[in-house]
Design brief:
Elements: H1 7-25, H2 34-50, H3 54-83, H4 88-99, H5 105-118, H6 123-131, H7 143-172, H8 174-190, H9 201-222
Length: about 220
């Protein structure tokens, strides 16, 4: 009797197991987290490109993004191909372990909930917790504004942290989730004005494209 479950069922059960793992354990430590590894790859490449002319920086950023996305997608596809051929009791944890780092619901939820809990120690502590989540100066925020900003942060990050990676996982399996997580990380590191403006233009637009449909879904979920 065939002990494998087939790709669709394996992916569905792996997603359920990865979600349970997220609820129980949260995020892996940076030393074990693939997103941290991606960040260590992107930092020196972006730093080198940022010193180039706008034309070279843009072209280099595009080529680097495509090459890294292809490599990460290939690794994820290879892992998925190998794992789904294993018996189900090996395939499910193997796929779940690879999928879990692509989304982060518990961390997002807990960070926002910590802002609310911090009010027990006073408004200053709540502002301090909020400052860990946003780039704005929150030192003058009153209680209502602190709470509103925390909820806005939850809504804004719901797509990047949860909906979009799972959307692409459902569509394309593990390679879809892995490439989206890479794209979002590249945008977070390179995709803003200033030092990385030209090197990060491709990364910023690629993240916009990959996030567009999931963002529409996030709005429906939130409303």
């Amino acid at each position: 009797m065939n002990s494998t479950l087939g790709l669709p069922l394996t992916l569905a059960l792996a997603l359920a197991l990865a979600w349970a793992g997220d609820q129980l354990f949260g995020e892996p430590r940076n030393a074990l987290h693939p997103v941290a590894w991606i960040g260590r790859l992107l930092a020196p490449v972006g730093g080198s490109l940022a010193r180039r002319s706008p034309t070279v920086a843009f072209a280099g950023g595009a080529v680097a993004w495509i090459a890294l996305a292809a490599g990460i997608g290939w690794i994820a596809a290879t892992w998925q191909h190998i794992a789904t051929a294993w018996p189900w009791w090996l395939a499910l944890p193997a796929m779940a372990l690879a999928l879990k780092p692509t989304f982060a619901w518990r961390m997002l939820r807990d960070e926002v909930a910590a802002v609310d809990a911090a009010f027990d120690q006073g408004i200053a502590e709540a502002r301090s917790r909020l400052a860990r989540l946003v780039s704005r100066d929150v030192s003058a925020f009153e209680e209502n504004l602190v709470r509103e900003t925390a909820i806005e942060t939850l809504a804004e990050n719901l797509n990047d942290s949860v909906v979009a990676p799972l959307f692409w996982f459902v569509l394309l399996g593990l390679p879809g989730a892995a490439i989206y997580r890479f794209a979002n990380t590249a945008d977070a590191m390179w995709g803003y004005r200033g030092r990385y403006e030209w090197a990060g233009k491709w990364a910023a637009h690629a993240d916009d494209v990959l996030s567009w449909w999931p963002a529409r879904l996030s709005v429906r979920l939130w409303s």
